[in-house]
Amino acid sequence: GDLLSSLLQSPSAAKLLNQPIPILDTESEYICSLALECLAHLFSWIPLSTSITPSLLTTIFHFARFGCDTRVRKMSSVNGSSQNSVLGQERGRLGVLAMSCINELMSKNCVPMEFEEYLLRMFQQTFYLLQKITKENNAHTVKSRLEELDESYIEKFTDFLRLFVSVHLRRIESYSQFPVVEFLALLFKYTFHQPTHEGYFSCLDIWTLFLDYLTSKIKSRLADKEAVLNRLLLCFLCGDRYEDALVLLLTEVLNRIQFRYNQAQLEELDDETLDDDQQTEWQRYLRQSLEVVAKVMELLPTHAFSTLFPVLQDNLEVYLGLQQFVVTSGTGHRLNITAENDCRRLHCSLRDLSSLLQAVGRLAEYFTGDVFAARFNDALTVVERLVKVTLYGSQIKLYNIETAVPSVLKPDLIDVHAQSLAALQAYAHWLAQFYSEVHRQNPEQFISLVSTALEAITPLISSKVQEKLLLSACHLLVSLATTVRPVFLISIPAVQKVFNRITDTSAQRLPDKAQVLVCRALSNVLLLPWPNLPESEQQWAVRSTNHASLISALTREYRQLKSNAILPQRKVQLEDS
């Protein structure tokens, strides 16, 4: 530590951060890098103690500034010489090494009482660095500044922010000297100006950690909820209320998943190659974004719903309005939208609708349980809309329609239809709770919802329907038969059609996955007890007979196999063994 300080030739540690970054010769830079590497190694195993002095911390943070000094990189690129370029890289490396030291200290969860003041000092200095990195002026936007910094430095700095929020925020937010509000404002800027997708993913993880922290703190201190919220998030960007801040975060995340606002970046995402988690880059991007949306919904359900639903409605209107452009052609039906601009806009709208349907489905859990009655109207609005959309898609068969750009628009139309079914499936537990509330009185609205949903499903239970859409319909059928399972389900004509379709040996067999799901659904309709009814009203005798008939029909061909076609094979196997 003394060696580093002497190389910087600083007369006062307190004033160090405000001084210009010194010019070091090659030998000094080499010695500094070795010293920082040693410190990082030491910090990885020694406990936090008084050996780590304020002066040492200040010196390390001063070196961390080397990584966010864009002037050095500019000078080396302008001067063009390889020597200048190497010097610029070395100075940047000092910043990376310094951040490694800081992160080793940050990763320690066991912090002695006497060290908490040092932590506060560290965060104050980090706040200064974050201000420097996200500062805008005539020559720089925040994004252009971040683009000019070394990627390794940005990664280390993001790691620091993650450690701060996950490990130490609970210690620091009570200190009046630490500007929590301003810190969150800078984190917001830092997040939404990331130059790479990976950087943005990492920042979303930080927000997820922060929202988890906030949720757990509220749950543990419900009596003091308002005080906690106001202290943590009082107007960190605009307005003067906590709710406005989180809604602003929600709005920005929603904008980032929509082609309408973020087309250039979204089109860069790979939607074909699967990673180790069996998801594409696009699916990962969407999933992480929706996790933030869901956590804001948990904190502010009314505000989150009023932000999301109007956006969904706008895109639904475009989809529902496509019927007027469907015309009859010689080979079937065609979507009469041919202009290149119109096709591109429709493609973006359909992609956005698919994402927003997934968002609405992700929020289903926040309408059930203790909050069912309080949020009933919002949930009913969503479910009614989803039922309408699924029926619309099945009736006019947009998934089979001819389009001007079949390689683009047809997959879009199939995906929207499949996602509307999946979103409705997510509300199966809400439908089950709805059924338990109304089964003895005025169940007409519930019966209408379930019957209409089944009308949307039935036409899709066909080997001629694309597998993605077919499986979505089958999964919804299983949820209705297993989770909701109303007493009237078996008597609905649409369910009778499915029974007839699956037991008709002359009909073309469904793909194996779909066949299994449909059989499971039909079996559950007959086997599982009806909710809200006593044992005496379960009609087990009739249902048992019907189930036996179903199994008999499903196994007819198997049972008709001749025994002499099987026995020789068994005999050969026995001889071989």
UniProtKB/TrEMBL annotation:
Keywords: Cytoplasm, Nucleus, Protein transport, Transport. One of its GO terms (biological process) is protein export from nucleus. InterPro entries: ARM-like, ARM-type_fold, XPO6. It comes from the Eukaryota. GO terms for molecular function: nuclear export signal receptor activity. One of its GO terms (cellular component) is nucleus. The keyword Acetylation does not apply. It is found in: Cytoplasm; Nucleus. SUPFAM superfamilies: ARM repeat. Belongs to the exportin family. This is Exportin-6. It comes from Antrostomus carolinensis.
